[in-house]
Each structure stands twice: as structure tokens, then as C-alpha cells.
Amino acid sequence: MEKILVVEDELSISTLLKFNLEKAGYSVLTAMDGREGLEVARKESPDFILLDLMLPGMDGMEVCKTLRMEKNNTPILMLTAKDEELDKILGLELGADDYMTKPFSPREVVARVRAIMRRTKHSSPPEVSEEQVLLVGPLQIFPEKYEAVFHNQKLELTPKEFELLLYLAKNQGRVMTRDQLLNAVWNYDYVGDSRIVDVHISHLREKIEEDTKQPKHIKTVRGLGYKFEA
Distance (Å, rounded) from C-alpha 110 to C-alpha 93? Predict the structure, then answer.
């Protein structure tokens, strides 16, 4: 049974999420503030984290940042009552895989959790078996292990960064629009929210480009999208 940690200080929301996630077949842990959530995440190693942005003691941004600095790549869905673009983008830049703005329906949360977990844990790209490696120039990708090596150095990637890099590499030389990347990597409609792609592209460039202002591998095609070149 997959384990989900819900870090939410509003008891009514926490209880509602716990009930619906358990009903969907997950084991659920809860924490009422950021520091407690961080400790539970460290001790219990959940498979997924639902993390509220506004928490007492230590806010969700700081919890997310700390986990990523500790090389904890557990998928994180950030929950926020704020509908401001800056908060969403900052959460993504700190390493969150996705976000949802309150109010939301419990069914929507469960669906989003399932979609992210399916892509990060259970899916394997077609035509690439566990024994095979996808080779693209200096890049080696191990799909089943969610690992990538670039110039003989292992890359530290979040699950979503890995999926984006894999998709770009499998389509090397082809221009991929933001909408194509959203549909392929995030697996649901992000109408008008393509900045999530730009943020993750920026993260990937920091990890594989010598000069992020003049990238050699992940190139911007003005007015269209991005393409990967070996």
C-alpha cells in the first residue's frame, strides 16, 4: 500500500483529504505544521507528499526546499489558498512537482495524486526495457531506474525533471510545443499555465548546460517551444 503524507494545518481539510485518500486505497500519514511534516517525511519515507503552502512554524516552501536539498525526490503536490502566479512559480522552482489552488474537490486531489504517482512510479516508456539504456550523445537515460547520466556524471533530478528530459531526448531534433510537453509529461490539461514547463526547462539547463544563457542541448525555438540536441 502506497503511503501519502498530508501536511495541512486546517483539521477539516486534513481530515477530508485523509478520508478520501484512504478510500482510494492509500495509507495516509498527517502532520499539522511544517516542522512536524519534515520530520515525518524523513522518518517514514512516504511515496507522496501533499504539502500546504501556509503552515505554522515552517511554511511549505521551506519544507519543500529542505527536502530537495536533502536529495529527497518524493513527489510533492503543493496546496495553496493563494491564486498568485508568483507563489505557484516559486513552489515549482523550489522543487514541487505540481500545485493545486484551494478550494478544490477531494476527487480532483485524488485524481491528481494518481496521475503523478502513475507517471513517477509505475509507468515505463514504450520500447525501452529495463535492460536497455537510451543514449543521446553524452546523455544516458535509465527509464526504469529514473536515473540519468550526463558526461559520466549522475544527474540529481526530481521525477518531473526526469520525465521532461526523457521526453525531450526521445524526440531529439524535433520542436516540442509547451502544450505538447504539458500533455505528455504532466498528463492533464494546464490551460494557460505553460510557465510550469519553462520553470522545469530552466532547472534542466542548470544541470546539463555549461552556459544556461547559450544552451547547446535544450534550445528555445522562439514562438514555438523547445527542442533537444545531442
Answer: 24
CATH topology of domain 134-228: Arc Repressor Mutant, subunit A (1.10.10)
Residue 50's pLDDT is 96
Would you give the end-to-end CA distance of the chain in angstroms?
40
CA-to-CA distance for 6 and 118, rounded, in angstroms? 18
pLDDT single digits (tens) 122-150 = 444 444 444 478 888 888 888 878 889 98
**95 neighbors 65 (Cβ within 8 angstroms):** yes
- Domain boundaries of the chain, sorted by first residue: 3-122, 134-228
Q: Which CATH architecture has domain 3-122?
A: 3-Layer(aba) Sandwich (3.40)
Quickly tell me which residue has 524535433 as its cell.
Answer: 174
Min mean pLDDT across 10-19, 76-85, 154-163, 185-194 is at 185-194
Cα angle, residue 83 at apex, residues 71 and 34 outer, rounded to 5°: 40
DSSP 40-63: HHHHH--SEEEEESS-SSS-HHHH
Q: Beta strand 48-52 with 27-31: parallel, antiparallel or unpaired? A: unpaired
Burial class (CB in 10 A: 0-12, 13-18, 19+), 169: buried
Give the DSSP H or E segment for 145: none
Instruction: Spell out where the chain has E strands.
Output: 3-7, 27-31, 48-52, 76-80, 98-101, 134-136, 139-142, 147-150, 153-154, 176-177, 218-221, 225-228
